[in-house]
Predict the 3D structure of the following.
Amino acid sequence: MNLRGRNKVSAEFSMSSMTDIVFLLLVFFLLTSPAITPDALDLILPKAKGKSTNQQKASVSITKDGAFYVNKERVSEYSIETELKKILANQDKPTIILRAEEGVPIEDAVKVMDIANKNNYKIVLAVRPN
């Protein structure tokens, strides 16, 4: 009398479904990570201590080569004020985030600060943490 069963249980474990899930998660995070970055240009900011808690209303970025951007849109240095007036027209506490790349002449940053002072806008200088 043969009492042994015909079906043998295999001791092997298939990792193919696990690798599929890991691959899908990797693709998901690679595709969604650029969406997490704030609406800003890729600038190398100067280092400083401190932290700003203001919400961003308008952003002015200045690159090393002297290009001015208002909310990622390139503008000439003479039309910065009109662009900011359009963006900050009906806001209670208009705030400008100034992102001046390392090595930008101080005169360029002072131009934007002067525009903010003339129009009673609050201005915050963006920096890298130390």
Summary: Residues 1 and 123 are 92 Å apart (CA to CA). Residues 47-129 form a domain with the Nucleotidyltransferase; domain 5 fold (CATH 3.30.420.270). The beta strands are 47-48, 58-62, 68-70, 73-75, 95-100, 122-125, 128-129.
